[in-house]
Amino acid sequence: MKYLRTLVLLFLLVPVFEGKAAAEAGTDRVFGTVSAKERFAGEVSFLIEKAWKKWQAEVQINDIPVEGSRGILLTGHVREPVLTVSAILKEFDPSGKSRDHVDCIRVVAGAVGNGMRAWQRGYSHGNIPFPRGASCVYTLSPCNNVPVPVGTGHSTADSAMEEEALYNYMLYRVPRSEKDILVVFRAAAQAVSECFTEWKGSCFITGIVASGGVAPSPAPMGPGPGRVKGAKGN
Questions:
Q1: pLDDT tens digits for 21-48?
Q2: Is the Cβ–Cβ distance between 66 and 125 less than 8 Å?
Q3: 233, 210 contact by CB (below 8 A)
Q4: Neighbouring-strand partners of residue 229
């Protein structure tokens, strides 16, 4: 199988997070200082980025129908794995941290996992190019797709990774209602959403191998090279 691979993956979560935290610093004991917010930002940034890179290196794309030069990634065909809360928290060490701090880490991880699961299940792409499928004989010999950005496709759940959706998920699971925690959650939602938008433009769908199907027989008995029908890509 081939995978979604990135050409550029720059998580800007820390600077976005820190800027928001500095602008709205409070006095609460959990995130009562800018430095406390910055530490939290660095921690969730590390956890999300590490899990994200592992996910995108392993996620599988299967059963893409190829007709002529066009491959179609149907909804639901971006397969396992999904970016889960447990995957994000795999290297999280709660030692020495308050219960509220740990709960906030889990809530942010939950928002990202929930949003990405919905986005992945709803993702499709209507035009993944396979130029060799436009002119072949008998069948399509194995060939790779032309890389296309993830952002040129569409998900029925794109809104699940927008700032308000992420923030609302966190808001309904806030460990206790305090201004500084809400500031941290708002900053996290903003940063994750902005990074996700950047990621869609910099991550490319590549390495899908298509083959098979039926193409015209070669001349003089057949019409010669032509469009393939019924090929598959994985």
A1: 555 554 446 777 788 888 888 899 999 9
A2: no
A3: yes
A4: 214
